[in-house]
């Protein structure tokens, strides 16, 4: 067996016994659902208290069954180990087409290779699915967007993006990837964040930036904030950076609209 | 080696075909139902060259655009399947659901059970 596959840490007979156990639970629940309908119908038409009691007992049995399955699955999950994980968040401004290539306008992606995905994303305990990234993980993507437009040297910091986005009408939210991967797919040191930015102006004009470049952008952005604070133009640099991290593109869009309206009113007056 | 297949169709025959084709080559499979398709992840495939790997994914019915992007772009991770997707059209976050077994749901045909003009 390769090192990085999911490792079943128990004998295969035990593994299959559990699989059969889940199947039996499911069969039992199927019968309970049938009884639920039957007693509900009897209670509805005959209004006998014993039917009602049986109905309630059946519903309780269904919930007991569901809880039992959840507990068993929690135990079962511990027996299968996934050694390496990849957690990624990505803002993708795109237009999907039927044939390749997709039309991408921009993509901001962040990837972490880790052994402990729970540090970076949250799992729904009922479904065992990774449902959302930790807030700080996606906040830094907004910082990168801001830094990139800052380097573009516009008056309004998101102006570069907003102008590119205006024809899109709708804006993306970050997508989340959490997947167990092979050891051969681990392309960077564990628990070190990797960045990837792609800006596409046409089918052939594609600009890709890697971790080193994006880290440079972030350094430049933080340096700019410090410089502005030293000059007294930004009073609270930490609060400013926090606001950049926590302001969504929607809110930036709203602000720009409002600013334009105000400017337009002023011009007219 | 790990192979991901993203099926962009709810056609259950395609799902079953891909699942059992992949099961011939690997040891451990995971299946997820997404908004308009399925994700199948297989672990423990034998080692393949890059060309074989992309060709294998195409043969298994993976989304050709996805394979094309993985082939052409080299700076970013390959075989990405998103656990949570937010479509730009309605901006509703969509989470995939795991099918604990391939026979989790009853399979049915979308063909009519009898021809409508026979009374």
How is this structure best described in words?
The complex is a heterodimer of chains A (269) and B (119). In chain A, the strands form 3 sheets. Chain A has a 5-stranded antiparallel sheet. Chain A is elongated and about 80 Å long. In chain A, 52% of the residues lie in helices and 20% in strands. The longest helix of chain A is centred in the N-terminal third of the chain and has 35 residues, at 12-46. Chain A has helices at 12-46, 49-79, 135-151, 159-165, 211-231, 237-246, 249-268, and strands at residues 7-8, 80-81, 84-95, 103-114, 121-124, 129-133, 175-181, 194-200, 206-209. In chain A, α3 (135-151) crosses α5 and α3 (135-151) crosses α6 (237-246). With 119 residues, chain B is of the alpha+beta class. Helices cover 26% and strands 24% of the residues of chain B. Chain B has 3 helices and 6 strands, in the order βαββααβββ. In chain B, strands 1-3-2-6 form a 4-stranded antiparallel sheet, with helices on one face. A two-stranded antiparallel ribbon of chain B has the order 4-5. In chain B, β4 and β5 form a beta hairpin. Chain B is globular, with a radius of gyration of 16 Å. The termini of chain B are far apart. The model of chain B has no long low-confidence stretch (mean pLDDT 85). At the A-B interface, α1, β3, β6 and β7 of A face α3 and β4 of B.
């Amino acid at each position: 067996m390769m090192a990085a596959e999911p490792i079943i840490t128990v004998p295969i007979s035990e593994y299959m016994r559990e699989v059969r156990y889940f199947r039996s639970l499911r069969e039992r629940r199927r019968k309970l659902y049938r009884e639920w309908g039957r007693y509900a119908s009897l209670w509805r038409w005959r209004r006998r208290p014993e039917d009602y009691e049986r109905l309630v007992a059946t519903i309780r049995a269904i919930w007991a069954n569901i809880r039992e399955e959840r507990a068993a699955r929690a135990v079962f999950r511990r027996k299968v180990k996934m050694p390496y994980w990849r957690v990624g968040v990505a803002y993708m401004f795109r237009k999907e087409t039927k044939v390749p290539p997709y039309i991408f306008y921009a993509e901001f992606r962040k990837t972490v290779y880790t052994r402990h995905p729970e540090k970076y994303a949250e799992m729904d305990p009922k479904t065992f699915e990774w449902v959302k990234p930790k807030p700080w993980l996606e906040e830094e993507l907004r910082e990168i967007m801001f830094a990139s437009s800052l380097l573009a040297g516009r008056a309004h910091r998101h102006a570069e993006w907003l102008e590119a986005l205006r024809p899109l009408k709708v804006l993306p939210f970050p997508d989340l990837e959490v997947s167990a991967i092979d050891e051969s797919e681990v392309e960077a040191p564990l628990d070190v964040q990797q960045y990837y930015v792609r800006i596409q102006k046409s089918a052939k004009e594609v600009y890709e930036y890697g971790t080193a470049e994006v880290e440079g952008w972030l350094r430049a952005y933080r340096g700019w904030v410090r410089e502005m604070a030293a000059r007294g133009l930004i009073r609270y640099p930490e609060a400013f950076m926090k606001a950049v991290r926590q302001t969504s593109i929607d809110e930036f869009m709203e602000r720009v609209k409002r600013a334009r309206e105000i400017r337009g009113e002023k011009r007219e007056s | 080696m790990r192979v991901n297949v993203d099926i962009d169709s709810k056609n259950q025959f395609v799902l079953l075909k891909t699942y059992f084709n992949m099961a011939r080559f690997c040891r451990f499979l995971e299946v997820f139902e997404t908004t308009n398709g399925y994700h199948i992840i297989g672990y423990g495939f034998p080692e393949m060259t890059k060309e074989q790997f992309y060709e294998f994914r195409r043969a298994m019915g993976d989304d050709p655009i996805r394979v094309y992007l993985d082939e052409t772009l080299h700076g970013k991770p390959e075989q990405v399947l998103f656990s949570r997707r937010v479509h730009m059209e309605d901006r509703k976050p969509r989470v995939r659901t795991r099918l604990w077994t391939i026979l989790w749901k009853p399979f049915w045909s979308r063909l009519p059970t009898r021809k409508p003009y026979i009374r």
